[in-house]
């Protein structure tokens, strides 16, 4: 490495200083999913980003799903994955498999990877310490054991953060009826961020962010106010699967999260690029 490259590295670190100061001792919640969970290189990059933030004093909470891994396990046991309007139908047997996969293999693999890249992490699912209490999600169609959140108890998360560990939370919850419920990861991350009054909620997706034209990634909308969302839905700018994602974010911001951002998890180090540089790379919602 020559002197010019060293100087460039030093300047990058100095430029990040105001953002490190902004987020130091603040809580951010990262919803981890999509392609960044499947690609090993991207997965390691995400874990490095989270450990780096943790080491400079940011209190990071990692919330994850794991749809592809669930599909794989269902296929192994000879059970067909069934989706209704894009949501997984979850009978009792599928709920048991979801709990085993998310709270077991996926969660512990992430804890292990965070450890490998120099972090300290503790794995949870929503059942542990009653972090998430859920009830059956009601709607026009019966989705089985798909749940909606009734309550979030952040005490186990706060104790973990206070001891400088990274909480890694799988989105499986129990209901007062004793059933296990599968919770949408975006919904869980938003609810946890709101309960923690987090400084920032980061949703990792497989798109650049909110696009003015969904077929043109160059039409990224860099910032949206909560008050603009109804108009954007009416115009069709926010449509399809982006509507529930934005609804989660809006609810989190209304409940006290300072800001939320939707970023492209297909880009290496997208979390650091968005949080510790002068210009974010996704869609900021305030």
Estimated radius of gyration: 19 Å
Low-confidence stretches: none
Strand sequence of the main sheet, in spatial order? 5-8-2-1-11-13-14-12
SS content category: alpha/beta
Q: Helix proportion of residues, in percent? A: 40-55%
The quaternary structure here is single chain
Number of DSSP E strands: 14
The biggest beta sheet, please?
8 strands, mixed
What would the average pLDDT be, to the nearest integer?
92
Q: Sum up the overall morphology in one term.
A: globular
Q: Care to describe what's here?
A:
By secondary structure, the chain is of the alpha/beta class. Helix content is 41%, strand content 21%. It has nine helices and 14 strands. The chain has an eight-stranded mixed sheet with strand order 5-8-2-1-11-13-14-12, with helices on both faces. A four-stranded mixed sheet has the order 7-6-9-10. The protein has a two-stranded antiparallel sheet with strand order 3-4. Helix 3 packs across helix 4 (92-116) and helix 6 packs parallel to helix 8.
């Amino acid at each position: 490495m020559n002197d010019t490259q060293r100087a460039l590295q030093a300047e990058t670190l100095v430029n990040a200083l105001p953002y490190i100061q902004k987020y130091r001792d603040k809580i951010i919640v990262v919803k981890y999913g999509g392609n960044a969970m499947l690609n090993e290189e991207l997965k390691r990059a995400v874990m490095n980003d989270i450990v780096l933030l943790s080491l400079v004093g940011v209190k990071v909470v990692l919330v994850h799903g794991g749809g592809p891994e669930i599909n794989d396990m269902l296929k192994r046991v000879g059970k067909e994955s069934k989706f209704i309007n894009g949501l997984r139908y979850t009978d009792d047997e599928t709920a048991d498999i979801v709990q085993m996969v998310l709270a077991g293999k996926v969660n512990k693999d992430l804890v292990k990877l965070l450890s490998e890249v120099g972090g300290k992490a503790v794995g949870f699912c929503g059942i542990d310490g009653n972090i998430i209490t859920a009830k059956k999600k009601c709607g026009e169609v019966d989705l089985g054991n798909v749940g909606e959140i009734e309550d979030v108890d952040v005490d186990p998360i706060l104790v973990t953060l206070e001891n400088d560990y990274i909480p890694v939370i799988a989105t499986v919850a129990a209901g007062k009826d004793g059933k296990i419920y599968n919770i949408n990861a975006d919904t869980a991350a938003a609810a946890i961020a709101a309960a923690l009054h987090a400084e920032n909620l980061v949703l990792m997706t497989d798109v650049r962010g909110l696009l003015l034209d969904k077929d043109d990634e160059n039409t990224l909308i860099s910032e949206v106010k909560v008050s603009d969302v109804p108009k954007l839905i009416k115009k069709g700018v926010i449509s399809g699967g982006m509507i529930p994602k934005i609804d989660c974010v809006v609810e989190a911001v209304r409940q006290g999260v300072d800001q939320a951002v939707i970023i492209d998890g297909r880009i290496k180090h997208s979390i650091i690029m968005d949080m510790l540089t002068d210009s974010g790379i996704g869609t900021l919602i305030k």
